[in-house]
Specification:
CATH class of chain B: Mainly Alpha
Largest sheet of chain A: 9 strands, mixed
CATH architecture of one domain in chain A: 2-Layer Sandwich
Distance between the termini of chain B: 27 Å
Structural class of chain B: mainly alpha
Number of strands of chain A: 29
Number of domains of chain B: 1
Largest sheet of chain B: 2 strands, antiparallel
Number of helices of chain A: 16
CATH topology of one domain in chain A: GMP Synthetase, Chain A, domain 3
Helix content of chain B: 40-55%
CATH topology of chain B: Non-ribosomal Peptide Synthetase Peptidyl Carrier Protein, Chain A
Oligomer: heterodimer
Amino acid sequence: MGSLVGHKNSRAEYNWRLTPFANLIGALEAAPGDRPFVTAWIDEDEQETVTFAEFRRRARAHAAILTRKGVTAGDRVIILMPQSIAAMTAFVGAMMLGAAPAFLAYPNFKIEAAKYRSGLEGVTSNLEAKVVVLDEGFPEEMLEYILLQGEAAVFRLDELTDSSAQARELAAVAGNSLAFLQHSAGTTGLQKGVALTHAAVLRQIQHLAGALHLDGSKDKIYSWLPLYHDMGLIACFMLPMVCHVPVVMQSPLDWVMHPETMLQIISENRCTLAWLPNFAFQFLARRTPAERRGRYDFSSLRGLINCSEPVRAASAAEFQRAFSVPGSVLQSSYAMAENVFAVTQSVLDGGSAPACVWADAQQFRNCHRVVPVAADATNAMQFISSGRLLPNHQVRIVSEQGATLEQGWVGEILIQSDCLFQGYYNRPDLTAAAIVDGWYRTGDLGFVLSDELYVVGRKKDLLIVGGENIYPQDIEELAGTHPAVHDGRVVAMGVYDPQLGTEEIVVVAELESEELLGSGERIESEIRSCVVSGMGVAVRKILLKPPKWIVKSTAGKPARSATRDKLLREHPELNREREGEDT
Amino acid sequence: MSPEAEQMITHIRELIRRPGIAIDENTPLVTSGLIDSMALVDLLLKLEDLTHLRIPAGKVQAKDMNTVALMFATAQRVGRPRK
């Protein structure tokens, strides 16, 4: 069957255990005081490291400040601060009181102001927080978009000037109480505060630490991931906090500006683990000049874990070519905030890359079925596994009609586990739609083969053209190989044609320079034939645009739905009643 | 106008490719829609080059980059000397 069951957690299998901890704070309290915990890396000249003891001291002081502001157990605390040690100690300080903190994205020059303001209004009104903690630099003009109720207060937390603040006896926090809320990315996602208990987070960390063979005395994590995202919050903050692992962190913005600094930090600090979304592998390879790639030493790395987007074979291959790292370093995981974090993890330290399969592309697109073929077969396409299930996890692959599918058939991924979320905070409507009969509907498409889970795309992005299932990423990858197209700046989408009764493929591609628009006809026809020969599907329309046209996400990758909206605004002729518009 | 500000203006002209539009030190760029927020990464990198300062991106908001004059003032305010 296409369902997978993770083995029961067996004591013999893991050398690390957190069962003695009643809650996340208990795990922090048990950390060796003199071990470094967080290093905030600003640049070559400015770094700050706090030990576990110092982190605890600052978190307690923040708990004392929050107490004075009236925060008690059961309250929500919003933290709107730039990525920093102070933001992390404020978060833990709130948890020490039994309150549930939530990190929200801090405004920056790359986020469109209108979008940010509406997201901020939505999320603050939904959370009904007792306090909103800001840093001193939070822009005045944004304050009016923080919606508060009753006696709620907003205050600016200066860099712990109040060193005299001492916490009273901290609340005994029950394992089944709410630990924090994490928000999934995206504007609509902002309304979804994923509610997680201490017990669920601890169970996830136990499973994950086991799968990673994590060792606090040897491992060191690197991260540029935002703390409001599950990869940043769980893999790079809660996991190291609970398992007593040092972490070196830089801000996502600093990384986007100078991506190469990540390589420098890993190399100089001998980091062993990092998590990255798929696009970052390509981004790093393309933004690091060839003559500088040899400077970095990656011999300390056990795993660069490709997570949060479908794993693309081409991205991993490009990174590997650029930096000559062993294939066994590039690992994979499938994760989501609703399950605290990871559902699967590939095998680290086994000396091999994640499993992969070559499958017949025609069968995949026409029948949603994976039929393995030889790598050199005509029409062979490659899929990289996201790994095996963590213990106490189950996956079912279901058809559109909800029937459980056999191995090798592609369908929606449903999951069940012992660390699944309680629901979306204050949103029983969204919770009821997401959890059906105890199974969480992920909205992702994938298949199971030989006990491995493969994730192929988002259900809502899938294009259905004349009965064939087309993944926009496949078209984007092909179109992006044209030398006139700016790296990675291609978006493929389906536009419904009511006369044909099917979707047709529209591709929008950004050119390297405006001058190239003069050769638009030639470039269009070359892209068209590249997609036809690579995938056997015809693109109805190719729209070439000048540099900077495609709407990008805060991380710098094309934002599919925002780009589609912009395209349909500029080209109303394309918008011929697209039924089934994603919701 | 400083030579650096002139170089920045030339860079912005090349970036926006709208020959009919005059740009000086005080022309609003973000609020007028001449440049989008994504282009600001590019401008911030250029600003680092021209000023020889390291500019912590997290301390910069779009309004701080609205004009060329503001950009250089922002660099002076939050930038730090580079080795």
